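Before the break, one more example. Copy the sequence into your notebook; we will annotate it together after we see the structure.
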Amino acid sequence: MMRILFITSNRLGDAVISTGVLDALQKRYPAAMFTVVCGPVAAGLFEADPRCERIIIMEKRRHDRHWIDLWRACCRTRWFMVVDLRGSLIGLTLRARRRIIVRGGRRPGRRVEQLGEALGYRRTPMPRVWISEKQRVEAVAALPEGRWLALGPTANWDGKIWPPERFVELAQALRAENLRAVVFYGPGEGERARAEPVLKALPEALDLGGDKSLGEVAALLQRCVLFVGNDSGLMHLAAAAGTPTLGLFGPSRASEYAPAGRLARFVEAPGPEGHAPIDGLGVAAVLKVAKEILREKDVCVPDRRSD
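Here is what the structure looks like once it is written out:
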């Protein structure tokens, strides 16, 4: 059997971005089965992928011993190809007919385009999601037909978080578009605490955060007409799911990490990229782009990049 080892990021956002090249590889090699290496937070991205026969979760250990663990898990297989998006040396030590090693280092341009170019694709492979039928059915039950507004008020560090009261003001303004808020956030007490001010100020909003797999979250996001959220893995997941997505950027780099999708947009706080405080981003600017996305969505055929 043709087997391909695909090593992607430990971080959720970068792992979501890499799903485009994984999908492109699966189309290029239709007889291949894939082993995906990723961090614990990203593992759920690949669980419903029928071409993924194994997921190796790589947890960091002292003295980089996690790479030794990975080598031991992979060294007995004769790989058709090793694709290493982490730029490590492990691909050179495994038996493989072909190796693609994407080296690190910051380069100009969007990360999704950089990966496509590194693997030789002329057209940028767009991120996608894999969703099981069970997850899809459960999402329909949780979010029946309606105009659901997905809010992503959390991020992996506080400097990227738009003030909670502005999420609330935005949601209230979008009620005029018949949108009802749904709040998403990741697992753990820290994520819950960051989402709490929005949940308290919007008692009518649905709380769908904290305890769901990534496939479940992706299925729920597909039920929403718009996602508005901070630069985060959740933002990238929404865009990959085909949900119209508006990413909010302050000190992070939209030029590299803007959401990728047909109806994916971003708004930046005023100031130099990489240094602009996100609290400089006003509600009016976000609301303007959100309404533009909604108008564009109303004339577009739905796009769902998933199985």
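The chain has a mean pLDDT of 94. The chain has two domains: 3-118, 133-297. Try to locate both features in your own notes.
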